[in-house]
Amino acid sequence: MLISTIAPAVLGLVVKFDELAEILVTTLVFVVIGLIFFTIAYFILSRVYDIHHEIEEDHNTALGIIIGAIMIGISIIIAAAIHG
Asked: Residue 63, CB half-sphere, CA atoms under 13 Å: how many?
């Protein structure tokens, strides 16, 4: 009984082989676009803040947390844009 309710949901996630190439190419294109935007955002942040000096030499933990939070936020925005 349980298998008959789970099987359609699991099998619904399977991609047909002829559609797989198109999905993989689309995914790779969006990954590359996302990484490009993420890299641009990181370079902008590194221009505004001297990240390496502040975190490594001055041990500025707060800046490390803020930079990490900004990167996670940018990643979520990129993922939402890709997902639609």
From this structure: 15
**Which token pair is 63?**
């800046």
Cβ proximity of 63 and 49 under 8 Å: yes
Rama region for 28: left / alpha / beta (φ>0; ψ in -120 to 50; rest): alpha
pLDDT in tens, 8-46: 555 556 667 777 788 788 878 888 888 888 889 888 888
Measured CA to CA, the distance from residue 66 to residue 72 in angstroms comes to 10
**Domain assignments of the chain as residue spans, ordered by start:** 15-83
